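Case study 2.
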Amino acid sequence: MKKNENTLYKITNIVFLVAAVLFLMGIAKEVVSEGWQTTGDVKSPILSVFLCFLCFLVLHTAKLLRFYLVLMEQRIEFKRFARVYIKTTFVNFLLPFKSGELFRIYCFAHETQNVRMGFISVIVDRIFDTCVLLLFLLPYDFCVAGSISAVTIILAFIVVLVLLGCVFLYSSYSYLNRFLLIHGSSRRTIWLLQMLENFKMCYDYMAGLLKGRFFLILIFSCIGWIFEFLFLKIMAGAFGIAFKAAQFAEYISGIFSADTGILKNDYVLISAVVLLAVMILSYCCPGKCLKNRRSENA
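Prediction:
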């Protein structure tokens, strides 16, 4: 049974990675045809590359540590965790409509051997990411744009829905559970009790993942978005493109759709190529191959 699960896991990985590489090739072709969206010669190329690399390193380190904090009690080996994070981030960068999150859920469910844990950990990670993003989008929409964008409305609705669900379960679970046990006797009551119990279990999982780590996770989320903005601003400045709050909001909207906002394709291409290179090195480095051969011979 375990052998079949591992085979399915490998096949699923291959399918998603091949799909991601195909999208990468399409984006590369589009970027080349657009001439890298430049309006002039790149200024200070060596300094710009160094600063972009530094921002890239900091932002992904912050995001990796944020997610590791969420799953810390699962005691996944950090090197293994980092490899899975890089792999899933590479896929998530390239697949449209954030559909790569499904791959992340699947991979971490496999790592923890718990489907619920894989799902909830990714949801918690996304909620924190979204909350910090809304701290930028809401003031921008109200004070600068003058109207709330569809992306802001959708993200705010998701966050509010999750928060209301948590508050509802925390305050009403005991009463609803007791009420259904006393006054219910039909199959529908049993179904409602099972659904209530499943929601309560998800809430307990979520509370356990955040216990004692709430502010650290929030801080890493802030660091991630700050350095992502800096990365884009430095890259835009190197190409002679204006990049301010309006352009950043446009970029955010493009993340949740198939649209190609300002610098989105350039940013995705550069990030994906770096992640692909790091992923190949992490999975195929000589030391790891030698270690695997020794374990097989033993």
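The longest helix spans residues 150-183.
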